[in-house]
């Protein structure tokens, strides 16, 4: 893992915190009495692409939602780009500015046009002039190949297009890390590919990515490492080549047997 | 399934070789007779209902039209015009009375020389309301600022006077009529919308003190009739506060109305807030928009949009409720009619009926326009939610 991380780290500009992009140590989380995460340790290097998979209810979404503090956790620590995720609201917003997130249900703002969706946070959080924000937004909309939809409202777009807008909206904040929470699970089958293609091309730019997904083809093609979770724990971490051809843990073998047939 | 549905010799596979033809739709049955049969007399019971409604119509509408228009007296300078005479043995509405008293209904006892100030207030209010209600108007943010910030201050200076800039003071005791009704209603709206939003947010807050206060305020006020709130404000308050400090009578009623309207508005806004999916908050948070920006830029614009019909309905109720200030001695529109109808100059059998008919028409027209507006917005929201 370290060798991959280092080759990419050379291309990324050094920041104040030259450590890992995300460092999760000894993370525990409970919903009431029910334990959803247990002893999660994960270090994500800059530029690294991680795919998190596992059966439903295994805590994958909860884990990445802890990283940008959409969910609180009760034990352990998460450090994102040198900033520790705590209860301090100022710190949390600092982290959230640097971490883009794409949701299963897109969560575009329906009362704003595609372009306004993309410029909202840059203008109000980054204090960017409107004109500059719009230029950047148009650049990213072109990159996800829907610049012609800029002045439509989200409800006028297909699911695949909406999800690509959501990706562009996150990218407009120039995040250092992008997280995807099952980005293709709510899509019609024929739209999955356009979203995955967008994610692949994003991966090619050297973006640090954490993807919760069931798309094993994507994992094979893009991931540096695959993380397999079950019952709130990380069961196995490996390179995709090893993970798919030579799974070590019994639970991983059962899971792969079920989803790959 | 194929065994049952198809003869054995048919293949289970199908491949289309020629595209299905596009044919015009067959004509629908039409004509007026068809419409009458399907809409008015589809079943014996429905036919009976149709006949009953028609009878009710015949029974009520012609006498009403006769009273309001045909037999009505339009011209005249005193009660003689509206008394039974040879030409008009059974006079209808005495509109001449309304014409004579009309300016009193609008301005109340507001000094004659200063009434232009009231007219300016009406114009500003109409302008601000139109700007706020027209959803596609340019610079709506500015319109809201005008309505909620500029309008109250300007109106206050204009109506109560400011001797330093040449506007003589007019005591609120001489405000009256439509002026007071509109002042009370618009103060109710202007205060209740922001206060209602804050209370609704407070009720959903995670801070126990804020939540407890909001719930307590809303439930307490909603559990008390408006007339009680008004009596409390105008009768009880002076008992506790020294007379010199006791605020203006109209102001006390305004505070009562505003408190009452805010509690109801809070519940309407809360319903709107609850209709916003959690994902909207999460997406906004994930972009780094904090609590207030998430509310102001993402949640409230959507929540208020879906709440507009309910806000307008609330406004209609509030507009009619303003007549209750009558009981604490304030000259609202209804009170001016109440005063005018006992004028001995116009003492006729139809004077009171005419006055009340005029009030009914006024309130109906005003409320009907508001309700039409709410319906229009609802239709627009229902039309595919394109925005």
Write up this protein.
The complex is a heterodimer of chains A (261) and B (387). Chain A is an alpha/beta fold. Chain A has helices spanning 2-9, 60-67, 89-98, 114-124, 130-143, 159-171, 189-204, 216-222, 240-245, 250-260; strands at 22-31, 34-44, 49-53, 75-80, 83-84, 99-102, 177-181, 208-212, 225-230, 233-238. In chain A, the strands form two sheets. In chain A, strands 6-7-8-3-9-10 form a six-stranded mixed β-sheet, with helices on both faces. In chain A, strands 2-1-4-5 form a four-stranded antiparallel β-sheet, covered by helices on one side. In chain A, a hairpin with a 2-residue loop joins strand 9 and strand 10 (233-238). Chain A is globular and about 55 Å long. Chain B has two domains: 25-60, no CATH class; 101-386, Orthogonal Bundle (MetI-like fold), CATH 1.10.3720. In chain B, 66% of the residues lie in helices and 0% in strands. The longest helix of chain B is centred in the C-terminal third of the chain and has 32 residues, at 351-382. The mean pLDDT of chain B is 89. Chains A and B meet through helix 3, strand 6, helix 4 and helix 6 of A and helix 11 and helix 12 of B. Chain B: It is a multi-pass membrane protein. Chain B: The chain crosses the membrane at residues 48-69, 93-110, 116-135, 142-165, 177-202, 223-241, 253-273, 316-334, 346-366. Chain B: Belongs to the binding-protein-dependent transport system permease family. HisMQ subfamily.
Short synopsis of the structure:
The complex is a heterodimer of chains A (261) and B (387). Chain A is 40% helix and 23% strand.
Write the layout of secondary structure elements.
The complex is a heterodimer of chains A (261) and B (387).
Chain A: H1 2-9, E1 22-31, E2 34-44, E3 49-53, H2 60-67, E4 75-80, E5 83-84, H3 89-98, E6 99-102, H4 114-124, H5 130-143, H6 159-171, E7 177-181, H7 189-204, E8 208-212, H8 216-222, E9 225-230, E10 233-238, H9 240-245, H10 250-260
Parallel strand pairs in A: 3-8, 3-9, 6-7, 7-8
Antiparallel strand pairs in A: 1-2, 1-4, 4-5, 9-10
Chain B: H1 2-5, H2 32-39, H3 44-70, H4 95-107, H5 115-133, H6 140-160, H7 177-203, H8 208-222, H9 226-240, H10 249-274, H11 278-286, H12 291-321, H13 333-340, H14 351-382
Helix pairs in contact in B: 4-7, 4-13, 5-6, 7-8, 7-10, 7-13, 8-10, 9-10, 10-12, 11-12, 12-14, 13-14
């Amino acid at each position: 893992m370290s060798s991959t991380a280092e080759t990419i780290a050379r291309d990324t500009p050094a920041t104040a915190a030259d450590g890992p992009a995300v460092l999760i140590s000894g993370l525990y989380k409970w919903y009431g009495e029910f334990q959803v995460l247990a002893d999660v340790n994960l270090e994500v290097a800059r530029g690294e692409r991680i795919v998190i998979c596992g059966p439903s209810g295994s805590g994958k979404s909860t884990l990445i939602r802890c990283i940008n503090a959409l969910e609180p956790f009760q034990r352990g620590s998460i450090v994102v780009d040198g900033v520790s995720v705590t209860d301090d609201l100022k710190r949390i917003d600092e982290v959230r500015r640097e971490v883009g997130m794409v949701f299963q249900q897109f969560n575009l703002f329906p009362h704003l046009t595609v372009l306004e969706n993309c410029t909202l946070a840059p203008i109000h959080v980054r204090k960017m002039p409107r004109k500059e924000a719009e230029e950047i937004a148009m650049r990213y909309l072109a990159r996800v190949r829907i610049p012609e939809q800029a002045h439509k409202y989200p409800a006028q777009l297909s699911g695949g297009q909406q999800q690509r807008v959501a990706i562009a909206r996150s990218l407009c904040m120039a995040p250092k890390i992008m997280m995807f929470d099952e980005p293709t699970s709510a899509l019609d089958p024929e739209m999955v590919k356009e979203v995955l293609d967008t994610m692949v091309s994003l991966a090619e730019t050297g973006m640090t990515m954490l993807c919760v997904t069931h798309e094993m083809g994507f994992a094979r093609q893009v991931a540096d490492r695959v993380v397999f979770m079950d019952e709130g724990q990380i069961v196995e971490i490996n390179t995709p080549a090893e993970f798919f051809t030579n799974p070590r843990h019994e639970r991983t073998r059962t899971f792969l047997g079920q989803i790959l047939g | 399934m194929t065994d049952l549905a198809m003869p054995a010799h048919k293949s289970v596979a199908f491949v289309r070789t020629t595209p299905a033809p596009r044919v015009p739709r067959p004509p629908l049955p039409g004509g007026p007779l068809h419409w009458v049969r399907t809409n008015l007399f589809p079943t014996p019971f429905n036919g009976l209902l149709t006949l009953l409604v028609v009878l009710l119509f015949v029974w009520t509408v012609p006498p009403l039209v006769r009273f309001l228009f045909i037999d009505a007296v339009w011209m005249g300078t005193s009660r003689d015009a509206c008394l039974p005479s040879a030409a008009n043995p059974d006079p209808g509405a005495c509109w001449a009375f309304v014409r004579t008293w009309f300016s009193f209904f609008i301005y109340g006892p507001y000094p004659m020389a200063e009434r232009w100030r009231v007219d300016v207030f009406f114009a500003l209010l109409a302008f601000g309301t139109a700007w706020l209600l027209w959803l596609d108007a340019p610079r709506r943010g500015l319109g809201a600022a005008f309505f909620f910030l500029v309008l109250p201050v300007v109106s206050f200076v204009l109506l109560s006077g400011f001797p330093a800039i040449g506007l003589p003071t007019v005591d609120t005791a001489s405000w009256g009529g439509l002026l007071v009704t509109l002042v009370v209603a618009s103060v109710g709206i202007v205060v209740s919308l922001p206060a209602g939003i804050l209370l609704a947010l407070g009720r959903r807050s995670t801070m126990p003190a804020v939540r407890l206060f909001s719930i307590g305020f809303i439930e307490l006020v909603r559990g008390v009739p408006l007339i009680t709130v008004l009596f409390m404000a105008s009768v009880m308050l002076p008992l506790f506060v020294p007379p010199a400090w006791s605020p203006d009578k109209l102001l006390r009623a305004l505070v009562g109305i505003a408190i009452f309207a805010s509690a109801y508005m809070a519940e309407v806004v809360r319903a709107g807030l609850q209709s916003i999916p959690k994902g909207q908050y999460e997406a906004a948070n994930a972009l780094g928009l904090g609590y207030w920006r998430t509310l102001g830029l993402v949640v409230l614009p959507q929540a208020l949009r879906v709440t507009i019909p309910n806000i307008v309905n609330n406004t209609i109720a509030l507009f009619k409720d303003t007549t209750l200030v009558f009981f604490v001695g304030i000259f609202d529109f209804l009170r001016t009619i109440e005063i005018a109808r006992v004028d001995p100059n116009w003492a006729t059998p139809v004077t009171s009926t005419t006055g009340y008919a005029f009030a009914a028409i006024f309130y109906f027209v005003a409320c009907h326009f508001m309700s039409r507006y709410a319906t229009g917005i609802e239709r627009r929201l229902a039309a595919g939610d394109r925005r």
